[in-house]
Design goal:
279 residues; alpha/beta; 44% helix; Alcohol dehydrogenase; oxidoreductase; NAD(P)-bd_dom_sf; oxidoreductase activity; Sc_DH/Rdtase_CS
Length: 279
Amino acid sequence: MLIPPVLPVPRDGIAVVTGASSGIGAAVAEALVNLPGTRFRVIGTTRDPASITNPIEGVECLALDLTDPSSIASFAHEILERGVPSVLVNNAGESQAGPLEELPREALERLFQTNVLGHIDLTQRLLPAMREAGEGRIVMVGSMLGSFPLAFRSSYVASKAAIKGFGFAARREVRPFGIGIAVMEPGSINTGLSQRRTKYVDADGPYGREFDTMLRRLDANESSGVSAERVAEEILAAVLDKRQKPLYAAGSLAPVVFPLSRILPRETMHRVINRRHGL
């Protein structure tokens, strides 16, 4: 099958943004609504649309719980009843931290269902319509930790590495049908996510002290990180670039860190990341 050198750029149709009630998702949804020269019908998701106190003008918000397969099926059916999705931004997720030894199985299962399997399920349900239409853009929102692991974030790192793997591998599968898949890896972002992070650690156990050091540094880095709007700019680039790249990144000195990682030994890069967090 011929692989098109450039991809069609969607300018209308349904644009789905998961996790659009705050942070990156809200910034992306608002940017899509206000994007000049386009007529996207932007649909954001949240677990409880009734809880949104400051709705974004022009963005419709529907219920979606990525931990519930029946919710995913119902949401996908509702989207397809309304039309063909041309943009899908898989953004919703959980941030989790804890030493590997102390991570409960139920926490791991919830994290992977939310950050990986739920998004793959949704993508599988919407992809046939996009393929039939002959165009579309899918953006998997990962994290720079998926490329540069940090101690005590192993479950989160693994989930973001997994979503990147799906995106990179499937990219070639769908490109002949005019569909682009890209991965966006934000670094430290100032979105208040640190207050919602789930943590699993015995504070008095063998890892408690170093975990606390890492977490304090992590929260400080995020409080001075890039804005959600800056990350949204990169996500929109992944949506609009004719020659879409596999990977986009913003924050945490991304323009320096990624080239440096191609020069320095992997162990050195891991040491740098851990030292930046006090380890």
